Amino acid sequence: MNLFQYVRPAEQKTAIAAVAAEPTARFLGGGTNLLDLMKRHIMQPEKLVDVTRLPLKGITQQGNIIRIGALTRNTEIAEDKTILQNLPLLAMAINAGASAQIRNMATTGGNLLQRTRCPYFYDTAMPCNKREPGTGCGALEGFNRMHAIFGFSDKCIAVNPSDMNVALRALDATVVVNGPKGERKIPIADFHRLPGDTPEKDTNLDKNELITAVTIPISPFSKNAYYLKVRDRNSYAFALVSVAAALNMDGNTIKEARLAMGGVAHKPWRLTDAETFLKSKTATEENFQQAAQIAFQGAKAFKHNQYKLKLGPNTIVQALSVASGLKSV
Amino acid sequence: MNEQEPFCPNESRRSFLKKSTVITAVALTPAAAINAANNHWDEHIAAAIENVSLSVEINGTRHTMDIDPRTSLLDLLRENLHLTGTKKGCDYGQCGACTVHVNGERVLSCLTLAATTDGSKVTTIEGLANGDELHPMQAAFIKHDGFQCGYCTPGQIMSAVACIREGHASSRDQIREYMSGNICRCGAYPNIVDAIEEVQKGGQKV
User: Fold this and answer.
1) Cα dist. A77→A18, B140, B161 in Å?
2) Which of A83, A193, A278, A307 could form a disulfide with A257 if both were Cys (CB 3.0 to 4.6 A apart)?
């Protein structure tokens, strides 16, 4: 690891100024992704600004909005009574990710900012436009079993590995950030980016901006929600595909549906066309299969991830079947 | 956790170093010092400026020292304090061999910067037994043959104790799920689950 300066300011303003003062400075949260990348010389900040003791922890409810402080650890969210009661989908998604140790360390802000990445990003002997812009993409013609089927470019076909982000996308979260120019709110849909010609940028957060909170509206989806993650082993592995399904039901009729996927794109992927189709439909396997076909229009696979074109729709159907109560887990 | 102890580098020491003749040659700013170190010009100079002061309680004993900010909690334990019970497996957060408790919660010491534990209480495998009397989880691992080569065992045991304390050991499936961050290359998993299940059912204080 290259040498860096470590500072731990007591105030948010000082922390933001400390990052703004150095071109390569970074905020340090749980460090579970950043330190890993620093050890491999993939990220080489010259200054780390430890924000973990800033007063940005905790979960509060104001009216119809739940606010999660950016430094709230993943475990705290997954076990919080307010979350379990109102947003069980979020707890399910978080518990499907990483390991108990990593969930104890990882912060909400840090999880949002974990790098969209693939094995070629880690392999410094291979080209990667995300790691070194302009060098090419090793995965395009390489071993691309884990890679994207939606929204990719010829510059990058990596997927965002976060489970939490998929639930936040389905639940229409907002990311609250603070920076040298003041506070702003970024809808989750606009927070992460597609790779386009600049895969080195995962998000639309400015370098000097600090995530301070995530807000989520309490939805009528809480009772009929399910997060289904399919992976190579039963626990502690990235998704091959995952589906966050949430339904607002009136008896057997779907008033409104929310669907998002992980493991398929550079950002958490919302399935709006399928949601529109499901509105006012009856919860039947036939309707769910049709929704899944609609969701996968435009999906395109590479040499080694053809299986996702079948696994994806099947996972959507299964997630919807469990969420609606049509099937048990 | 000690919430309110900001750490900022010792400005007077830095000012002093800036003025010293050895250093004027590299037109010293913090960034320049780091560049100097990264280019191996004079790592000692840069390190002296950028060291971090740390006071941390490990297994009941307080340690106060200055450390290189790059030091992971794992390296602090093993290299600086010679507490070699905590093992370095992958060093990238994938295997769980380095699991310790910080303020009562299990974390990966390889991905924890030691500097971030300032003011915290750390428990390692060395802090689990009561003198010569093994912790119930240690005894259960021996009884059930919860290991073969033993390299992952300290991490498994620290994780297993936390697993019960968290209330995540109510069934074999739940134990497997909440122990998934600890990899055992020898494949002692069934016996590890047996050990945890027995301690959990025994109701002893862990």
Assistant:
1) 29, 32, 22
2) A278
Judged by CB atoms within 8 Å, which residues 174-193 of B form the interface with A? 176-182
Give me the mean pLDDT over the B1-16 stretch.
Answer: 49
Per DSSP, the three-state class of A178 is strand
B34·A99 Cβ contact <8 A: no
Alpha carbon dihedral B146, B147, B153, B158, in 10-degree steps, equals: -10
Is B22's pLDDT higher than 80?
A: no
Over residues B51-62, the pLDDT tens digits come to: 999 999 999 999
Q: Does the pLDDT of residue A14 top 80, yes or no?
A: yes
The answer, yes or no, to whether residue A79 has pLDDT greater than 80, is: yes
Q: Which of B81, B96, B127 is the last residue of a domain?
A: B127
pLDDT tens by residue, B124-169 = 999 999 999 999 999 999 999 999 999 999 999 999 999 999 999 9
What CATH number did the domain enclosing B65 receive?
A: 3.10.20.30
Domain residues for B39? 11-50
**Boundary residue ending a domain (B99, B127, B155):** B127
Please answer yes or no on whether A31 and B162 come within 8 Å at the CB atom.
Answer: no
In a domain, B5, yes or no: no
Q: A103: nearest CA in chain B?
A: B107
Nearest one of B168, B192, B191, B184 to B87, comparing CA atoms: B184
Specify whether the backbone of A101 is left (phi greater than 0), alpha (psi in -120 to 50) or beta: alpha
Chain A residues whose beta carbon lies within 8 Å of the beta carbon of residue B122: none
pLDDT 10s digits, A178-189? 999 999 999 999
Answer yes or no: is B188 within a domain.
Answer: yes
**Percent of chain A beyond pLDDT 90?**
99
Is the domain of B105 the same as that of B79? yes
Distance between B71 CA and the closest CA of chain A, angstroms: 10
Q: Which residue has the tokens 């300066």?
A: A5
Q: Which domains does chain A have, with CATH numbers?
A: 5-52 (3.30.43.10), 225-324 (3.30.390.50)
Which residue in A has a C-alpha nearest to residue B97's C-alpha?
A101
Number of structural domains (chain B) is 3
Residues B57 and B122 in one domain: yes
Do B117 and B173 lie in a common domain? Answer: no
Using alpha carbons, list the distances in angstroms from residue A177 to A45, A170, A205, A294: 21, 20, 8, 35
Residue B148 shares a structural domain with residue B100: no
Hey, is the C-beta of B31 within 8 angstroms of any chain A C-beta?
A: yes
